[in-house]
Request: fold
Amino acid sequence: MFFKMKSLLKKISYAFYKKGQLKSHNIKLGYIFHTERLYDDRLFNQLILFCKKYKAITCAEPICTVIPPSNLQLKRELNERAFPEKEYASRIIELSQYSTIGYHGHFYLDNNPFNYNAIHCNSFNANNLTEQFENDINWFEKNQIPHNNIYAGGWWFFNENLLQLLLQYGFQFDFSFSKAPFFYNQFSNEIMNENNIPTGEVFEIGFDGEKKLTCIQNFIGMHTTSFPEDFDRNMKKLDLNIKELVGVVNAHDYDLNFDNTLRCIEFQMKFNNIKFLSFNDLIGEKPFKSIRLFSAT
Amino acid sequence: MEKYEIRNIDIQDEHSRITIAKLVNEAFDSNIDKEKIFLNTNTRNKKTVYLGAYLNNELAAVNFFIAHELLYNDKSVIAYQSCWSATGNNHRKRGLFSMLINHAKQSLYGAFIFGFPNHNSEPIFLNKLDFRKIDLSKLNIPVKIFPHLFLKYYLRQVKPTYQLPLKDSFIPIEAELIELKKNEYANEIKVYESYNNIVWGKVTKRSSKLGELTFFRIGGIQVNKPHLLYLVFKELIKKEKPDIIQVISCENSSLLELFRGVKPAPKTEPLIIYDLNTNTTSSHFNFISGIKDVF
Reply:
């Protein structure tokens, strides 16, 4: 009842809503998946189909950052379904034909994916992070699946230790920083505030050495409603202070709304002139600021 | 003069548990089950230390040191909570309690030893054993009527760009505490989680002039997204329908910055600290009641 009412109200208010409210900005956008349930036949087939349709509309490929089966939670889910790890690897390889693959990390305290053990800035253990991160990287290597040095943080977790690991293992591109209120991360927030990074600005971050991680911000999560105008409204909640905006929007493989998302993408191309880019075009955007951290570790 | 010997007790050993329970029950004239003592103290990091004073192989006194994993400037550290101090009736007034604590000060490897002593042991800790005191603060949030209005007042509304000042703060790993308390109290422990924030605790009933009141005593708060903390509290209020939400924390806890109306709690046992390998003089202790062995 509540949702029906909300939907009706939206319908009425959007009838008076001016289309193309983001038109004054030059927005270059990538579409990134946090891919977590490739064992599900329906979700996997839907994702492949979405990637194809997305390309047909935008001429670009989405990025699919995947959780590898070395992840403790995914390992448990695969065991419960008796889904072979090899098959999971094959599905990632198949997905790589239609998207750019990256790494999506979720980490757990006590190496235990139960009982409130999610690793975040204030519930953190460096040994657990390192062990699980290295297991994941080894899985990619062992299965000869390139993660293309692309990373997107699970639960938007990011901190100095993770940055060190990413740089140590040669990662170059990150999609974990975001100014969206629900994607807040203490470390990312501090970095962006202290360095006056506006929404949509590409920046790079590193320590004393030459290695740097190029950070492309995740603007918002893609809404699932049938109203493309929700996209404009959600984007406008961020402070859009610069004209040239580069970033991504995200969805999970399990919460993608196939039809509404494609409709919204077409709407954005038509009314806001948003350019949807593949990973290779996104990284053609040069970082504006270079942030050097002084490691405390 | 009898010569007492301090030894580590192996709590995994069934016989040790029986001996400990016997001593504790003799000292407090109680009937505590041996498993209760184990469940109350055995954190998952497995570093809890059980010290015993022995006279001719007879257990004369015990003091346990629950090992808690804490986060301090992004690093994991261990701090020990002194608890379960008990001396057998035939061994009283021999200074065994001080002997056990002094032994711990020399032998434990960690950031600090802490405790919440009662009015009997507090002067010994402070005057004889060189601990220092940090008083506690308390907040009762009335949520029986207009809960969201009161919540909005007592829980500060912060912007998404807000940064909780956590530098030099000792932050408990709440998952470890929840696991410990759930092992002991099972479903009495209620946990609410939303957007990487966690609030957990226990429901208790208390009589007052207004009749019986339902308190939700908060055991711990994990804050990762401060501006969304209100969502967990809203969920808690919806499910538990308490009259009062109670937060008791150290007066220098940086978490208290998120609340309004916090008052000193002079009647509550204070936190006492003895530094081991970390100078904690200017540190913040983000401890809430749930870390106490008696929560």
